[in-house]
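During the reporting period the student researcher (J.K.) took over the structure-prediction task from the postdoctoral fellow and processed the backlog of single-chain submissions. One of the processed entries is reproduced below for the supervisory committee.
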Amino acid sequence: MLRQSDRAPGLLLGDGVTLPDSTWIGGNVVIHDGTVVGEGARIQDGAVLGKPLALGPASTAARVDLAPLEVGAGATVGANAVVLAGARIGESAVVGDRAHVRERAVVGEGSVVGSGSAVDNDVTIGARVKIQTACYLTAFSVVEDGVFVAPGVTTTNDNDMGRHERGAQLRGATLRRACRVGAGSILLPGIEVGEEAFVAAGALVTRNVEPRTLVMGVPARPVRQVGDAELIERWS
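J.K. obtained the following structure tokens:
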């Protein structure tokens, strides 16, 4: 049950919330039952933490009890962002304004989810990942450490668009370490982008991208190899 708190203007707290004194809280924040917030976290205006899952009657998502949301020490949850119960936000990570992070999603240490982006259920994001504005990471995707996802990228996980047997396994994208995915790109279900690969802006990726390969076009095709001077590890 949510109750008014005098800790911050308009703050509503559920039962069993862990909220250290070092947490900065904006106005009109809602924190649901059991949510654990780490030391020094920043929760900005209108954010909703630990929101219970709400599914449509035809949804095939798992209907199971969810663990409490965990927000790591030093993390920031932006204004009007919504982070569901069952998610985990790592230390010093940032969930941008109006972003949406679903159940069982993990955002790794020092990673950024940009404004207006959506991280679907069962997505795993590693450390030091940069996801820019208005991206969609579909359910069951994996994003490894150091990946860069430019604005407006869309990933998909269902070739049949719902016209399959109930319980069929969906396959999200796999973005390997330090790869880069350009603005407005679309990745079809189950696509893997290899380590240090580069997907050009606006590409439609219909096949796996080999490590250290630049692809571009509709459909995306290999253009050249990524040179040593372009490797992320060289600049980190």
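The committee noted the following: The chain is about 0% helix and 30% strand.
J.K. will present the remaining backlog at the next meeting.
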